[in-house]
Specification:
Number of domains: 1
Radius of gyration: 20 Å
Structural class: alpha/beta
Order of helices and strands: HHEEEHEHEHHEHH
Helix content: 40-55%
Oligomer: single chain
């Protein structure tokens, strides 16, 4: 991978784009579920990119098969089953290695399941006909509600279950979902004597998670096969270390926003990627 492509990839995963934020939300979601079910989170972590080619995975140390695999499609052009045909039907992990070697400029078409049963697609708008059987789809065609192209979901890809029984997450909603999940986790794990955090504190925690991801990417980007990872225990530590009564929290918030603004203006007016 060229230095330029490494810089671009690093910036794209810095938390400023939708894919990076979706990864943070899913990691928080798994953390909360495991806490509720009294499961051990010590060996659980999120891995971005890696050698799978997928956007991110939830993995467990010592286990070859991921807990779940995730592909993110933040495109308004994806509306019908035929638009995601390769994702639904092509399992890249079943192909011979020489048929899908790495390519910096072209992403493989399909889904690299790696033997995992929990394979999720993240979308910003509904796909017509997703989840319908062939017969149900034909009925909708006859009613004029769907285009006459049915695609069998042989990969058994699922849409990720977001709060309020939603199967999509619009671009503008992801930040709010993350903040709410952070508040949920903190309220569940705090001692009774501790004050509850609000979304202002949750925003600082969110920002610190983004900075953690920045650092992980920086440490990995010179490697031939970068795979930034964050343990779920690290995420929980970030949530618990912020003191709601701290006088420094506003200062922390300002510093992070200054950093965001500075990076934006450098890129906007100089063309450089940081």
């Amino acid at each position: 991978m060229s230095d330029t492509s490494k810089r671009n990839e690093t910036h794209s995963w810095s938390g400023y784009n939708y894919q990076g934020k979706v990864g943070i939300f899913v990691a928080l979601d798994y953390l909360y579920k495991y806490l509720l079910e009294k499961k051990n989170i010590k060996d659980l972590y999120i891995e971005y990119e890696g050698n799978s080619g997928e956007d991110f995975q939830i993995k467990k140390k010592g286990k070859e098969v991921p807990v779940s695999v995730h592909q993110v499609k933040a495109s308004l052009t994806i509306k019908n089953l035929n638009d995601i045909k390769d994702i639904l039907t092509v399992d890249l992990s079943q192909r011979k290695e020489e048929t899908y070697e790495k390519n910096d400029d072209k992403k493989k078409k399909g889904f690299n399941k790696q033997g995992c049963d929990e394979c999720y697609l993240h979308l910003i708008q509904e796909i017509q006909g997703f989840g319908l059987t062939k017969e149900e789809y034909k009925t909708q065609i006859q009613k004029g509600k769907l285009k006459p192209v049915y695609v069998q979901n042989t990969n058994n890809i699922k849409l990720y279950p977001y709060p309020d029984e939603a199967n999509i997450c619009e671009l503008l909603n992801i930040d709010l979902l993350i903040l709410k999940k952070i508040v949920e986790i903190d309220n569940y794990t705090k001692d009774e004597a501790e004050p509850e955090i609000d979304e202002n504190i949750a925003e600082i925690i969110f920002e610190s998670l983004v900075l953690d991801l920045d650092k992980k990417i920086d440490s990995e980007r010179e490697k031939e096969n970068p795979r930034p990872q964050i343990n779920l225990t690290e995420i929980l530590e970030r949530i618990k270390e912020i003191d709601p009564k701290s006088k420094d929290r506003k200062r922390s918030n300002r510093i992070f926003k200054w950093k965001n603004d500075l990076m934006f203006y450098i890129e906007e007016y100089s063309g450089l990627k940081i």
